[in-house]
Amino acid sequence: MTSEASDPGAFRETAASIEQQIGRAIVGQREAVRGVMVCLIGGGHALLEGIPGVGKTSMARAFAAAVQLSHSRIQFTPDLMPADITGTTVFSEDPVEGLRAQFHRGPVFCNLLLADEINRASPRTQSALLEAMQEGTVTVAGTTRPLPTPFCVLATQNPVEMQGTYPLPEAQLDRFLVKLRFSYPTEAELATIVAQTNDGERTEDIEAVAGADQLLAMGALARKVPAAASVLAHLSELVLALQPSPDAAAMVRDYVQLGPSPRAAQALSLAGRITALLDGRHNLAVEDVHEVAPMALRHRLVLNFDAEREAVTPEMIIADALARLPG
What is d(CA 134, CA 162) in angstroms, rounded to the nearest whole number? Predict the structure, then answer.
């Protein structure tokens, strides 16, 4: 494993080693790989969206193999219960102590949690992750238990098969640091995927090149990246520009029902700082904010029916807002 990533050089070296290992199992999907990397370093969570077969689950498994962290997988189904995620208290009879309660931990007690097809579970079950994602704790039967650090949720959802699914509420969407879209592979990428078909499970070739201590050190370093007041003002103007009001730009005024929360500004700041270090810069720049804006904001815009009818996407609205900002 590489040395502890407590300086920019070691930071980039560790990140490059992880991305190299991921490339052994995942073909293409550059934005998604970078987004998951940002979440692991920043201690955030990622929502992975794409049609079946483009590598959402495989990417989560690849990161679990490349980073030496405890990991669990939950296959979300309509009959899944909250206790299946958080754990439950079991009562047993002891010959000496008599009746005693023992807590059996659920799969959420890990560093890296793959929540596969998260939108297939009921809202009651989805809400079991809210405290874990925001506070890093789980409360069962009045007792609050801390989760391991770092703690990252990689949740997948299929945007096509909507029958039998429950859309994630805005409160839960806002707890994802980024939302990553998986694109269909190009002709060259598809040819590479087909050529690797007979090679078996590619994640078996991945070596663990980092651990929890390194990720925590990388996250601490990213939070120390300086940012000029003008850049933070630019970031804030972007978030405010996406709030629907009579004075907002036409696309926001006509198509946005609910704009991003202040948590979106925090996500832009953290993801931008990590991106700056990954790209070899030692301070947050406007271009870093623009680079992470789509992944940090697309799931925080609630669009109205007119947007759906006219095929207006969050990415189109974000791009329009970025183009209107001065500087």
Answer: 27
